[in-house]
Design goal:
Elements (H helix, E strand, L loop, with lengths): L2 H17 L5 H76 L1
Helix pairs in contact: 1-2
Amino acid sequence: MGDDRRLNMLLKVFLKWCMTDDDTEEENRMVYERMLMTLAQCEFSIAKSQHVLAMNDAEMKNYEQLYSEIEVGITNAQKKIVENKLELQKAKSIRKNKQEY
């Protein structure tokens, strides 16, 4: 059952419970216990949602950190590629010069 529906049902039962004078004490106690159980379910649902939110925030921070690390790795790899290309060009020119002499 959704949280909205659960809260609406709790409100309806509470209003009915407040307005009814005909019920026996046993019936009143049962309705009261049911309302407490529904309220406990709502509180549990709220706590669960808060834990999920905290977990999602932690995961988001983790992914942002991984993204930053990957970005740095890509930048370093691009620099290394440029350096290796320059080194290759130098090696080619040295080889060409050796072949000419």
